[in-house]
Automatic annotation (TrEMBL):
PROSITE patterns: GLYCOSYL_HYDROL_F3 (PS00775). It comes from Knoellia koreensis. It catalyses: Hydrolysis of terminal non-reducing N-acetyl-D-hexosamine residues in N-acetyl-beta-D-hexosaminides. It comes from the Bacteria. It is an enzyme of class 3 (hydrolase). This is beta-N-acetylhexosaminidase. Residues 1-28 form the signal peptide. One of its GO terms (molecular function) is beta-N-acetylhexosaminidase activity. One of its GO terms (biological process) is peptidoglycan turnover. Residues 61-402 form the Glycoside hydrolase family 3 N-terminal domain. The keyword Repeat does not apply. Its EC number is 3.2.1.52.
Length: 620
């Protein structure tokens, strides 16, 4: 396999701030190259500094601007795509294929998706590896011969994992937080990184370093390790080490912290109301730890943080935050990549010709998925030519992008072995490790009636509640252990008829297992439970009223128990991968001891205090 070797991974040493920056005298004419007298950086970048400076001397302004962008492309092959993918590429870029998009913009990177914008990049491992190689060939066919960063959001867990099976499904951040194990967090990231590297990925937009202290955070939740900055710091660093060991670079996100927001930045612009003291105590520690651990890249958040920047600028466009705090205060000299610029947190405030320029002026190096690529590219190019973005500022970011690619070994070895990819992705040892790690994450929150662990033997089990695949997979796990199962899946918002049907089925059952998904969610508009949360709560309470033994399994956020504190038996899984469902059933039968501890505290629904503290968790 032609994978990037461990020797090409960057040092864990924190890079010093750029010194001896020189005005590089960009030639004004379109297509002409920049004259580089010396260049940014410092001697500590050896042995690659000379190579980067030499390359930059021969790059045109247009090529340099291209390196600042990370774009999406549609299709499962670089050169041959479906009509749907062709239409997407035409709409986004005015070209037919991913290879043509690479030739047009010569971007610094590409990000893979599945269903977003009909991108449809991800199929079987051999296909993805072939696509990656094709994109790298397209990049190297250009005059500058600069390989691509190829990135993806593969955080692990059930929420943000672009690669489904056969890729190994690791348990996710909050589950790892419940497990408390640095070794497990490292191994989880190493498996993900190894599999991504096998199919040509060079970077994973993970780990999430946000400290989730808001139970009603609509966008982070179980994507966070937990509510304790020290725990988040410890396990984020463990994951960074694991990704690097697996052969991909890591990205800590979302700076300066997205863990205490009540708005999803995909759909609006959140505000973090922390004081400076809270900012330093809660939000910053994981990012400080990530920088000390040698993280390659930090991703920005589209959040307003008035205590840090009273201007109201989102962090992505805030020089006070990106340059003042991240660069100067924390001393980070790696890559700063924006969160997707087509998210409402960016577009609601800044037009498509303004957002990319403002992000660069704030201190960002890479612009992720601008909503109108031609507009964004042209705006940045014009800003360089008219001096809004100085020649020096442009070269600082281009230098970082190219240096990153050299240090990560992408220049030396941009291609992967297509034949080896299917053996690496979903390898038996990876799957076994995923199950073993996941088995150590389930939290037993309540066991008041000592229903658990279940004794062996036949029984009639009703599996009710949220999730078509979740309920069927759980029922199959019970059946494998000799139970006769009935499934009454009722969706996110159970109807009265669905609740009645589940109650009727419960009457003929020996045990009821009911799964919930965000049964504690509160509407930001009303301050009351959402319709879905209220309906799920009604389902749980109706099943409790049957008098049958009921086990409630919170499949996503662990806060659900606050909506039905009278439930005597409650388990938290922090996700619903097949491994997490198997771990739940193993815990119910006592095949493994529930060792997960709450990585967050659970508030009482009336706001009067804690229902369960951080660190709570029962065992057998």
């Amino acid at each position: 396999m032609s994978a990037r070797s461990a020797s090409t991974r960057p040092s864990r040493r924190l890079l010093r701030p750029l010194v001896a920056l020189v005005s590089l005298g960009l030639v004004a004419g379109a297509g002409q190259t920049a004259a580089v007298a010396d260049g940014p950086g410092h001697s500590g970048d050896a042995p690659y500094r000379g190579k980067v400076i030499s390359l930059m001397r021969h790059m045109s302004v247009e090529q340099k601007v291209g390196q600042l962008f990370v774009i999406e492309v549609a299709g499962r092959d670089a050169n041959t795509v479906s009509d749907t993918a062709k239409a997407t590429n035409q709409r986004l870029y005015g070209v037919d294929t991913p290879a043509q998009a690479i030739a047009k913009y010569q971007p610094g990177g590409v990000i893979y998706f599945t269903t977003r914008n009909n991108d449809d990049n991800i199929g079987d491992p051999a296909q993805v590896a072939t696509l990656s190689n094709g994109l790298q060939s397209a990049a190297l066919a250009q005059k500058a011969k600069i390989p691509l960063q190829i990135a993806v959001d593969q955080e692990g867990g059930a929420l943000v994992a672009r690669f489904g099976p056969p890729a190994t499904q690791m348990p996710g951040n909050m589950a790892l937080g419940a497990g408390r194990s640095e070794a497990d967090a490292t191994r989880s990231a190493q498996v993900i990184g190894t599999e991504l590297a096998a199919v040509g990925l060079t970077q994973d937009y993970a780990p999430v370093a946000d400290v989730n202290i808001n139970p009603n955070n609509p966008v982070i939740g179980i994507r966070s390790i937990g509510s304790d900055p020290a725990l988040v710091s410890k396990l984020a660093v463990a994951q960074i080490n694991g990704y690097h060991a697996g052969g991909v670079s890591a990205v800590a996100k979302h700076f300066p912290g997205h863990g205490d927001t009540g708005t999803d930045s995909h759909y609006g612009l959140p505000q973090v109301t922390h004081t400076l003291e809270q900012f330093n105590a809660i939000d910053l520690p994981p990012f400080k730890a990530a920088i000390a651990a040698g993280v390659d890249t930090i991703m920005t958040a589209h959040v307003v943080f008035p205590a840090v920047d009273p201007s109201g600028a989102p962090a992505t466009m805030s020089k006070k935050i990106l340059t003042g705090v991240l660069r100067e205060q924390l001393g980070f000299d790696g890559l700063i990549v924006t969160d997707a610029l087509d998210m409402a947190g960016a577009t609601a405030t800044y037009p498509p010709n303004v957002a990319p320029v403002q992000a660069l002026l704030a201190g960002a190096d890479q612009l992720l998925i601008p909503p109108q690529m031609d507009t964004a590219y042209g705006a940045v190019l014009d800003a360089v030519k008219d001096g809004t973005i100085s020649q020096q500022r442009l070269d600082e970011s281009v230098y970082r992008v190219l240096m990153h690619k050299y240090k990560r070994g992408i220049f030396a070895d941009p291609f992967v072995d297509v034949a080896a990819a299917p053996q690496i992705m979903g390898a038996p040892q990876h799957l076994a490790d995923a199950q073993a790690i996941t088995d150590r994450t389930t939290t037993l929150v309540k066991n008041d009636d000592s229903v658990l662990p279940l004794a062996a033997g036949p029984r009639k089990v009703l599996v009710a509640g949220w999730g078509v695949t979740t309920t069927q997979t759980m029922a199959a796990a019970f059946a494998k252990r000799g139970a006769t199962t009935t499934v009454r899946e009722s969706g996110t918002t159970p109807s009265a008829a669905a609740i009645d049907s589940a109650v009727a089925a419960a009457q003929a059952s020996d045990l009821v297992v009911v799964s919930t998904n965000n049964a504690y969610a509160i509407s930001a508009a009303t301050g009351q439970p959402t319709a879905a949360a209220a309906a799920q709560t009604r389902l749980v309470k109706a099943l409790l009223a049957t008098g049958k033994p009921v086990v409630v399994t919170a499949m996503r956020n662990p806060y659900d128990v606050a909506s039905f504190p009278e439930a005597p038996t409650v388990l938290d899984s922090y996700g619903y991968t097949s491994h997490q469902i198997e771990a739940l059933v193993k815990v119910m039968y006592g095949e493994v001891n529930p060792t997960g501890k709450l990585p967050v505290s659970i508030p009482k629904a009336d706001g009067s205090g804690e229902l369960f503290p951080f660190g709570h968790g029962l065992g057998y």
